[in-house]
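stuck on this one:
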Amino acid sequence: MAEYIDYGWRTSDLIAQSLNKTLYKNLTASDRDVAARALRDLVKSSDECHDVDWDDKTLQKFLFARKFVLEDSFELLKNYCSYRSRNPDVFRDLSLNAEDVRRALENGLPGVLKDKDRKGRCILLLTANNWDCSYTILSIYRAMLVCLEHLTNDLHNQANGFVVIVDWTEFSYKQTTQLKPSILRLMIEGLQDCFPARFKGIHFIGQPWYVDAALTVTKPFLHEEIKERIFSHGNNLSTLHELVHKDVLPAELGGEKPSYNPRSFLDSLDQKVKNDSIINNKENGRL
């Protein structure tokens, strides 16, 4: 298939027509390499993002996020570069060891469930009431970006995307006042238009009326496609289970798994970062 795909990258209409909703998931490693080279050539020939040495692994994230349509992937990458340059506070010291990021992750903001859903999608869980407001919602967003950066290194997650569940149960009115509209808009712009991750479903449960009211300010900034993927279940967990089966959900969401422990994902992330560091050091001859 690589020979055909090689031609396709030069003919955007052809590739857009030939890649249906699932075919892009089945491209070979060779096909993906060809696509990454084509995207890199576009970057080098443009005045935007050309000063960054984009590796194949990173370029592939943008390709998967736009189903390997080259022009769309390039547009997303340009959006990402522009977003980073316009929002330095979001990306400054953006790592697992940043104090605010770590505090958010210790509270499970976000957490990641061990099991994928029945469509193979990775499930992010945010238990909103765990937020004690000693750090800002911007810190939660930064923690989300750190998680997604690591999660999208996984080819499976690139191909199948993510489901987000936000549990607003017992979230107080005082906490709601910390949901700053400017930061919510910043988050929407970044996750919707810039970051190379595909969100297949966003589920709100247990939300009180004042949370719904606070979140209405975000609706004008949402694409129609995203609006259609947002589900507000309130206290009706059965409607959640129709879309995310309870065999992968923790007990507090009416699921069949044990209660979620925020430390479980953070510990696995720590170990992964440590292993990656060892591998990189070996490859660079430092071990």
Q: What stands out?
A: DSSP finds 15 helices and five strands in the chain.
